[in-house]
Every structure is written in structure tokens, then in C-alpha cells.
Give the backbone structure.
Amino acid sequence: MRLSIAFIITALTATAAAEDVRPEPAKVAATIDRGLGFLVSDALAWKTKHNCVSCHHAALVVWSMREAKLRGHTVDEPVLAELTKWVAESGEGKTGVPRPEGLPKALNVKAVLFSLALAADPEPDAAAQKGMKLMWGTVKGDQTENGSWSAWPDTRPPIFGGSHDSMTALATLALLPAAAGDEEAKVARDKGVKWLAETKTDDDPQSVAMRLLLWSKLGRPREEIEPLITRIKERQNADGGWSQTKDMESDAWATGQALYALAHAGIKPEDPVIGRAQAFLIKTQKENGSWPMMTRPTKTGDPVTPGQIAIHGGGSAWGVLGLVRSR
């Protein structure tokens, strides 16, 4: 009898602890709204100062604002329209920088992230549709013969970086809407899926998260999805967040991506893993709505430095995306 009572008490304590981890929905919502406020002001400041249609201050901001709106958050509609138009009319998504020797088809990540941002709108206007078609053309043209997309090794991760695995998952994700009505895109998508299915993941946190997101959207068998879920869960740090690399602290980029992928894979808000991650993002958000970030080096072995403007924008966008999807 004593054993039974002890067991019940232990079970109730564990349940209560799990519930305590989950932040109040109002706190999650307020964190999202502050994040959206930062993204708007930061993107407009970037646009005014640099006039550079960037992945970190245009595409990821449009993507996060669009998802937040679709899930019930109030967003700055004129700014969303302005940034969407900016992205849609930016061209083919090519950087114009000569590709490195030995990698003539190094992926134009710009085309990938821009098309993902525009595709987040379930009813894109004519300008967005035209922009997506141009960018999908670039993504298709960058695919290599074996079905993968090549990462550019001397660019700065995680926005770019040296992971073919990560870039192939992202590029394939970008082509999913195109494949519905474009035979060339369907062939490219299928080649990308085949390469990923036959290639062991490089275990980069972004690679694992984006592969899980892709597999979930494609409805792949659970035996392919569950190991990715397990890998992400076991990497969660004691503070509730995730790190971009094993040598870095938890941040909003890695935590947002993990949350976003887990939510798409069917992990519910009640899961303690989700609650701990949400609590981490609530606790670490700055007063201005951004999250602290560090800038990774271009080359392995170089020092990590205090976050620059690009990674603050991109990291905060992923923080918002993760919270929005995991509510």
C-alpha cells in the first residue's frame, strides 16, 4: 500500500513539474509580439540604411510575420506588404558573386530563402507568384547531377555555411510548392529527396532540423522521422535551448529551428521539451524584442564573436517562428 501511495505521489509530482515548465500562453504570445515589433523596426532600418534585399532582414522577416499572422497574431500589414513586394521584385535570387573554383553550381541560398518566404502566403499576389517562379528557376538550376545542392564552404554559417546536407534540405523544401504544377520542379524535388534518403545526415543541428521539417511535410514514414525527433530532443541543453554547434551556447536561431521542426513533426505544446524551449526564449529575449546572438566564424577554428546585425535579425526571426509554430 505504501509503495502504491509513493508511486502515485511521484507520478503526480512529475506531472506537476512538467506542467510548471510550460509557460503561460499569454507570456508566449507577448514574447512573439515583442519579437515581431523588433523585426519590423530592424528590417525597416536595414532597408533604409543598406537597401539590400537580404535573407536575414527581408526573407526571414516576411516568413515569420506571415506565419504569425496566419496563426492569429496582429502584424504591421503595411510593412508586411512593403517587405513582401521588396522580396518579390528583387529578381532571380542570384548573388552575382562568381562561384568558387570546383563548385560552379554553389547554391544561391538567397533564392531558397526568398521563395520560402513568399510561399508562406497561402494566397500570393501576382508579383509574389512571378518572383517565386524566377527564384525556383535559380534553385532548379543550382542542383547538381547527384541531386544535392552544394554549399559554399567559405561563407558564414548558419545563413549560408558549408553543409551540403542543410542546403539540400532547404532547397528541396523551397521546391515543394513549385512541384505541384511544374514537372521540372517535381523532378528536382524527387532527386533531392532521393539524395537525402540515401545520404546519412552530417548531424549539423540545422541539417537535422531542416531534414525533419522536410520529411514531415512530405509525410515520410515515422521510422524515418522518429530518429530525427530523438536526435533533436537529446541535444536540448539544460537551459532549455539549443546550440548551433557543440561549442556554442543556446541561442534563438537553433532553438527556433528546433521548435519549428518539432512542431511540424507533431510534437505537442504539452511536451516538456517544448515548454522548456519556450521558457528559454521568453527568459532570454531582450527588452527591444530581439535575442542575443553570436556570430560564427567563416572558417572552422576561427573565434566566435559578438553578434553582428545580420545574425541578430535572422536569429530573432527564427525565435519568433519557433514560438509561433509551437504554441
